[in-house]
Amino acid sequence: MTAPSEVPSEVPSEVRTAARDLEAALRRELDGEVAFDDYTRHLFSRDASMYAIEPQGVVFPRHADDVRAAVVAAAEHGVPLVPRGAGTSLAGQTVGPGLVLDLSRHMHRILELDADARTALVEPGVVQDQLNRAAAAHGLMFGPDTSTSNRATIGGMAGNNSAGSGSIRYGMTIDHVRELDVVLSDGTTARLAPVDEAERARRAGLDTLEGRLYRELPRIVDAHAASIATDFPAYWRRSGGYRLDRLADTGGDAPFDLAKFVVGSEGTLVVATRALVDLVPKPARTVIAVGHFTSVAGAIEATEDALGLDPAAVEMMDRTILDLSRQKIEYASLGNILEGDPEALLFVSFTGDDEAELTGRLQELTGLWKRHGHGYHTLQAVTPAQQSGLLKVRKSSLGLLMAASEGTRRPLAFIEDTAVDPRDLAAYTRRFKQVLDRHGLDAGFYGHCSVGCLHIRPFVDVADPAQVKTMRAVAEEIKELVREYDGVNSSEHGDGLARSEFNRELYGDDLYEAMREVKGLFDPENRLNPGKIVDAPAMTEHLRDAALPPAPRLRTHLDFEVVGGGDMRGAADRCMNIGLCRKSDAGAMCPSYMVTKHEHDSTRGRANALVKALSEPDPKAALGDEGLHEVLDLCLMCKACKSECPLGVDMASLKAETLAHHHERHGTPLRSRVFGAIRRLNRLGSATAPISNLPLPRRLLERGLGIASARPLPVFARRNLVTWFRRRPGTVAGSQGTVTLLADSFTTYTDPDVGRAAVELLERAGWQVQLESGGCCGRAAFSKGLLDQAKAQAGDLVHRLADSGDGPIVGCEPSCLLTLRDEHRALLPGDPAVADVSGRVKQLEELLTEAIDDGRLQLRDDVGPAGRRVLFHGHCHQKAEVGTAATVALLQRIPGAEVVELDAGCCGMAGSFGFEAEHYDTSMAVGEDRLFPAVRAEAEDTIVAATGVSCRQQIHHGTERTAVHPLQLIREALR
Length: 975
Fold this sequence. Notes:
Blueprint: H1 13-29, E1 33-35, H2 38-43, E2 57-60, H3 64-76, E3 81-84, E4 99-102, E5 110-114, E6 119-122, H4 128-136, E7 140-141, H5 154-160, H6 167-170, E8 177-183, E9 189-192, E10 194-195, H7 197-204, H8 209-223, H9 225-230, H10 244-248, E11 256-257, H11 258-262, E12 271-278, E13 280-281, E14 285-293, H12 296-301, H13 303-307, E15 313-318, H14 319-326, E16 344-352, H15 355-372, E17 377-381, H16 384-395, H17 397-402, E18 409-411, H18 425-438, E19 443-448, E20 453-461, H19 465-484, H20 496-499, H21 503-507, H22 509-522, H23 544-547, H24 560-563, H25 568-572, H26 591-596, H27 603-614, H28 619-623, H29 626-632, H30 640-644, H31 651-666, H32 670-676, H33 678-687, H34 698-705, H35 721-727, E21 737-742, H36 752-764, E22 767-772, H37 779-783, H38 787-802, E23 809-811, H39 814-819, H40 823-827, H41 832-840, H42 844-854, E24 869-873, H43 876-881, H44 885-892, E25 898-901, H45 920-929, H46 931-936, E26 943-946, H47 949-959, E27 963-964, H48 966-973
Helix pairs in contact: 1-3, 7-8, 8-22, 18-19, 36-48, 38-41, 42-44
C-alpha cells in the first residue's frame, strides 16, 4: 500500500492537489513508506478510544531523519501531525487530522542497554515487554507496568505518562525518563535532559526554537507561580495537563529538566525519536493473595489492610469481568481455581528476593482479612504456574469488559481514569456508583486500588443522541466529584479528546492560560497533535459510532448472527482497537502481523478495513475491491483471533465471506478451485500412487498455478485409510459403544498411519469404530471463499453423520473435526442436524485419556516414547475452538514422559497458504518467528509432536525434524 494514491473525487480539487503535493514531497524525502490510500487512512483514523478522525495520510519513518523530514514537510504544507505508537490510547490522543506518524513499525530498536548504569537507550517504537525481556537478562526491568505491556510502546508511554499496576512502588513513566531526542515543531532537533542553571542560560542564548524554550519557560513559570503552586490537584498520580509543577520545583541545585516536562504532553509539544530511560532491579520472587469478596465495596474496604504490608500492587476486578473470562478458552483456567462465586476479587502482589519473607506477608494479610471480616476466602498463589492464569485475566480486564459490547452499546472510556487518595476510595466509589445509577448506566469496575484508580466504564450507545447527552452529563458530574475529593481526572490514560475540554475548569483560568502559553511556545502554528490538552473540541465531537452511516443491506453466505455481531459489519465492528492482535511474543494472534509489523496485517487493521467497505453505499462491490483484498491477503485464517481477541473478532469467517464476494465480482481463480477440491485431488493422488509421487516440473507448476516451487508436495499413500479399513478383519461390538471416526481428506490419503493408530487405539479402548469417509467437511472450500460449495459439502456430511447413531464423533485432523462445531453452524443456520452433530463431537484424546485412566488402555514404561521429552505444538484451530489441554493430558499419560507444550504461535503453513508462491516467504517467516528456533534448540532425542498435518509438514520443511501425531506415540507405548 505504498503506491501513489488516488484522493477521492468528492474532495474539493484544491484539497486533492494539496494532498498529492504533500504525498509527493514525503515520498521524495523519506526512506520509510508513505500511504495516502483510503484504507490506510481509515485504519489510522481510530485508536482504542470512542473517537475517529480520518487523517490525510500516514507515514512509517525508518529513522530520526525521516521523522524530521515528515515534520518539515507537514509544516511547509500547513498540515497537522499526529505521532502514534501502538494506537492503544483510550482517550483519543492518537487520532487527528493531517499526517499520522506510525513510529512503531520500523523504529523499534533497543540501541543500548547499560546494566551498570541501569539505563536503556531505545527508539520510540520499542514495546514494553520487548525492553523487559532484554533487561531481564541483567536482572532489570522497566518500572511502569501497563496491562498493555505486550504492545504498548515506550514512546506512547512517554507521550501518555503511563503508569500501571506497580505505580505504588515505581511511580509513572515521567519518573523513569532521563533524556529524550526530539524533533521540534519547526523541524529542528534537540536533546532534552536535565541541565544546571549555567547550561540552561547558555542554551537560552541560542537563536533557535530550542533557545526560546530555555528563555521563555522560566518566565512562564515565574509569571504563574502562584497558580502552579496551588491549582494542580494535590494527588500525585497525574497524567493530564502540562507538568509546569516539575519545572517550578527547581529550588537550590535542582536541574532544569525539559525531558520530564514533555512526558505526558501527548505529542503536542515535540516528537520523540529516542529515549534514555531508567531501569530498576527486577524482583526475583512474586507472591499473590487473591481475596474473594461478596461486593465491590467489600474489596475496596480490604485495601487498607493490604497497603499496610508494603505491596507491589493491589488490583480489583468485579463480577462483570470474571463472568466474561469464564466464557473464553484463553482465560478459562481462572474459573477452575476460584472458591465459590465472588462478586469481586482483590489481587495483592508482594515482590522481592526473599520468598520466605514474602510468603510471611501473604500469611499476615490472610490473617488480617480474616480478623477484620474482609472477604470469605483468600487464595494464595506462590509459584509462577499458580499465578499465570490469574495474571492473564487481570491484564485482560479491558478486553474482557469490551467483549460485553452489544452492537454500538459499548463500555466507553470517558470517566475511567479518575484517581483519589486510596483512603477516600470506598466513599468516592459509592458516590460514583450513585451518579451512574441516577442516569441508569451499567458499568464494569476494575483497576488499581493501591493508588485509588478504578477504571469504571459505563455502557453507552453513542449512536443514540440521547445517550450522548447522558454521557456528557455523567462526565460533568464525575469531574465535579473528582474536584470535591481533590483527585485527578486523568491519572494514567491522559487527556486526549475525552477530557481535555474540562482542563480549564479543573486547573483554573490562570494555570490553564499558562498551559496555553506553553503550547504556543513549543508549537506556534498549532501543528503538533492539535486539540489535545488545551483548546480542545467538546468531548462529544468526533465520536466513532455516531459518525458511522447505517449499514447498507447485504446478503451474505454465512449467518453472522452465529458468527457474532448480528450482520457482517457488526461482526467486524466488534473490534474496539485495543490492539492485543499487535502482540509479538505469545499466543498465535496475529501471525502475519508478527512478521510484517504493519497495521493492516493485524486483526484490528483488517476489521477496520472491512467496516469501511461494509459502510460504502454498495458494500457488495466494496467487498470485491482490490485494496480490501490486499489488506486481507496475509490473513492465514488461523482463527487465533476468535479466541485470543477478547472481543472474539472472527477474521477467518469474515475473510471467507469477503473472498466469496470477490470471486463473484472477479471470477474464481483456478488455484482456489484446485485447493477447494482437495479431497478429490488427494483421492486421485492416492489412486495413482506411486506415479503421482514422481517429481513434477515445479517451475511450471509455480507459473501455472502459483504453487511455490520451494515447498515440498505431500506424498500420497497408495494404501489409504479407507482401503485399509475395508480390508481389515471384522471387529466385534465394543463395550463402550460405537464411535464415528471422521476420515478427513489428509489423514485418509497422505497420513493414513495416523488414522490407523486412531482406529487401533479406539478399538483397544473398547469402542466399535465406524469410518465416515463419504465426503469433505467443506473446510478447504470455506478457506478459499467457495462458500456455496462448502455449504453443499457441509450439508451432505452433516446429514450422514446425523444418521450414524448417537455415539461420539472424533477425528485426527483438528481443523476438519472442529469445522463440524463451528463453520457448519454459520453455513447451515437453523439445521437441527448441525446442532445434533456438533453436540456429539469429541476430541479423540478425551476418549483415550479416559480409557487409560480406567485401565482399558495400558502403556508400557520401557518402550518408545516412555521416559522421553516430548515437545508438543498444537494446531491453531484446536487452540481457538477447544484448547490443547486434552492432548497435553493424553501425552502426560505416557510413563515418565516430560511433556512441554510450545507457545510458538501459528506454524505458518495454514493449509494451502504455505503452498502459495506469493505467500511462501511469509509462511516461512511465521515459522521462523518462534516455532523453528524452539524445535532446533531441542536435543536430537526429543520427540516432536503436532496434531495438525500442516504443522507437521511445516516443521519438517523448516527444521528437518520429523514431527509425529500424538496418537502415534500412544499406539507405540501400548502394552
